[in-house]
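sorry for the late reply, my laptop died twice this morning and i had to redo everyting from scratch. anyway the thing you sent over, i finally got around to it. pasting the sequence first so we're on the same page, its 250 residues, then the predicted structure underneath. double check i copied it right bc i was rushing
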Amino acid sequence: MAKGQKILFLGVYGMEVVECGGALAKNVLNGGESFASIMLCRETSQPQVRNAAEVLGVKDIKFLNFQYGTVDLSVESKKKIVKIIREVKPDIIITQDPEHSFHDLDPDRRPAMTLLLEAIALSSRDFALDELPGLEPHPIPTIYYMTPHHPNTVVDITEVWEKKERAMDMLDSQLEFSGMHFDEMLDPKAAEILYPGFSKLTNFQEKGRAIHQVLDKAVHVYHGLATHGHFALAEAYRREGNFHLQELIV
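ok and here's the structure:
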């Protein structure tokens, strides 16, 4: 990643800002600016997600307040996202992976993916210029898809790992929800293998955080050191399109 980039993360759910938080924080560390926009985030959870974004050094995060189960391809929906893109004028956009979105059974992921890609395309055209005064078309940035099924890029996040973990600590509602899920689905013996002492944790938030710590490290080590990689901890991405190089690089 080049120094001093302007990165815009276009997320569907709040926790995603932490899932790609390593790249966002690394960009800030290298002198760049990172921004975020979330489509679906309950009002009660927004302060937690904002706190997580601040830990990562995100300059500004906006909540678009789409409603669950109603994400569509209306002109008004497109304008919400086009407005963000034209305001930030990013060099890079990070967003959800199209392939992943079709397999994920979280609601709204599939229409959200089409909406996001349409808005990215429209932001570079003469779309809604009268309705968005002062916001000129912005060329389509380089796009990276987060948590892809078939990554072609990994980012070394070892230097910002602790920031990413602190950001996850901010997401109380998500951790409580995850704790309820893990407590129900995991066999007690399996839970103890993953996190020794799991049965002694006293609330769902602690249980959620415990398993997320295990999952986070496992995923990032897998994409880093475990796959003959150069980095101890890495976030995986898939770049849209070819890499355009003046010459081959190491």
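The chain has two domains: 6-154, 159-231.
thats about all i looked at so far, will dig more tmrw
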